[in-house]
Amino acid sequence: MKTFITHSPQETEELAGKLAALLSPGDIIAYEGGMGMGKTAFTRGLCRGLGIAADVSSPTFSLVNEYRGENATLYHFDMFRVESFSDLYSTGFFDYLDYGGILAIEWSENIAGALPEGCIQVSLERVDDTTRKITIKGDERLEAALA
Predict the structure, then answer these.
(1) pLDDT at 54
(2) What are the CA-CA distances from residue 93 to residues 6, 75, 98, 105, 114 (Å)?
(3) Long-range contact list for 97-101, CB < 8 A, 24+ apart?
(4) Given a cut of 90, is residue 132 above it in pLDDT?
(5) Which of 47, 28, 32 is nearest to 142 (CA)?
(6) In a 10 Å sphere around its CB, with 0-12 CB exposed, 13-18 middle and 19+ buried, how is residue 94 labelled?
(7) What SUPFAM superfamilies does UniProt report for this protein, alphabetically (predicted)?
(8) What is the dihedral of CA 116, 122, 125, 128, to 10 degrees?
(9) Cα separation of 63 and 106, whole Å?
(10) Which CATH superfamily does the domain covering 2-145 fall into?
């Protein structure tokens, strides 16, 4: 587990870009953090780090946004309104697990029981208006590289 402090959305995106360089198809990033904590900024950074040129926005109403690049696809989920297994099933979430892309899931705590083992956990906490405490917990490849 590694903890970082960022002082702007740009720094949050830069941190995510470093993480993106370590990701592989099938990885799942499970975000935890309230509204306005920087989850979408983090996803913007993931896209940049994966070489995906995309206009990243929160998938609040669409439930999932798909960002395709030459070498990677990122599926960005918002599980804020998911209240049951039936709701989750209707999003098509389980199908996306088999697509070979990288999943970034906002409000992952709402589907904690459905997440496969080995997810990368990214917790974003507010320190002040622009400063965030970001904790990343993952496997050994992340622990060594994000030192």
Answers:
(1) 83
(2) 30, 10, 9, 10, 10
(3) 97/28, 99/73, 99/75, 100/25, 100/26, 100/73, 101/25, 101/26, 101/72, 101/73, 101/74, 101/75
(4) yes
(5) 28
(6) exposed
(7) P-loop containing nucleoside triphosphate hydrolases
(8) -160
(9) 10
(10) P-loop containing nucleotide triphosphate hydrolases (3.40.50.300)
Q: What is the pLDDT of residues 76-96, one digit of tens each?
A: 998 988 888 888 888 888 899
Spatial distance between the Cα atoms of 6 and 28, rounded to a whole number of angstroms = 22
pLDDT score of 143 more than 90: no
**3-34 burial by CB neighbour count: b if 16+ within 10 A, else e?**
eeebeebebbbebbbebbebbeeebbbbbbbe
